Amino acid sequence: MSVPMLDSAFAPSDEQLRCLYDGGARVYGGYLGGLRVYQDGFATWAANNFEAFRCAHAAGFSLVGYFVGDQRLNGDPFGYDRGLQRGQAALAAARAAGVPMVIALDVEDRAVGQDVDDYCRGFADGVRPSAYATALYGNPPTLVYGPYFDATIAAEYPATPPVNPAVGPRHAWQYQGGHDECGLNVDRGVADEWFLTNTAGDAPMTPQERDELRRVVARIGYLFRRFNEPGVQEQQFQDQQGPADLDLFLAAIVDTPGSDTPGIHDTLAAIAALPGELGALDSRVTAVEQRPGGGVTAHHHNFGLSATGSTSDPI
Fold this sequence. Notes:
Blueprint: E1 2-7, H1 14-22, E2 27-34, H2 47-58, E3 62-68, H3 80-97, E4 102-106, H4 114-127, E5 133-138, E6 151-155, E7 171-181, E8 184-192, H5 194-197, H6 207-228, H7 234-238, H8 243-252, H9 264-272, H10 281-290
Parallel strand pairs: 1-2, 2-3, 3-4, 4-5, 5-6, 6-7
Antiparallel strand pairs: 1-8, 7-8
Helix pairs in contact: 2-8, 3-4, 3-8, 9-10
């Protein structure tokens, strides 16, 4: 069995969601993030703490969260590490949205090649530690990398939309580009019923967990700023951190290959690996810095932490 599927660059209103659902659509796709998404105006899906995804879920839709990947035509690099970072960013955004969905990598330009193969494998690996299912969206040449994912979504537009489009297992077909439905510009397709039953996600963060994560993010930011800006006070940084800032941080968290500072994923991984003693952070960060490709090696700063975890400044 197949079901109608829609997606849109801009988030629908509650009224439009009801209209589209009443029209028979049961799967809806929106933008989690990715390259050029925010500057191209797609941020409405992620604005207000991803409320648009929650509204679509409440309206009865099964969801697909599209993460716009790198593009060959823009000269973006590919490769496994790049894909892994994008997958981790997409996972963070999906968790911030807090509703079940399939996380889909959007690869444009009909990109192919060994570096694209590695990139797709890395993206899937970045999401795989979670309970979220994955999909690869793109044109048929790129879908050759579909086996790394749980499903594929083909973007192929025939001159005349098919009356009875055929869809195979774990597959979807976006067969009609932008057009108006219920006052919204949407793309239309059809999806295997798998998309109705395989949109499980991790349990959403509780308010207490969100507050704790916001506190950790603020303190990490303070530690880095204190190293670069002597005299900065933690409160100056904490006052700027709100729930919306946290969600955008989670959605955009990407390491920059070749950076001369420790990558954020390496840093957070070092903190997560601590055996319960904050004092171990200094040695862990040192290990990260000394690891090949692990970041800064020209200097080391202990962020004011002693071997017992005491601090010279309040953190």
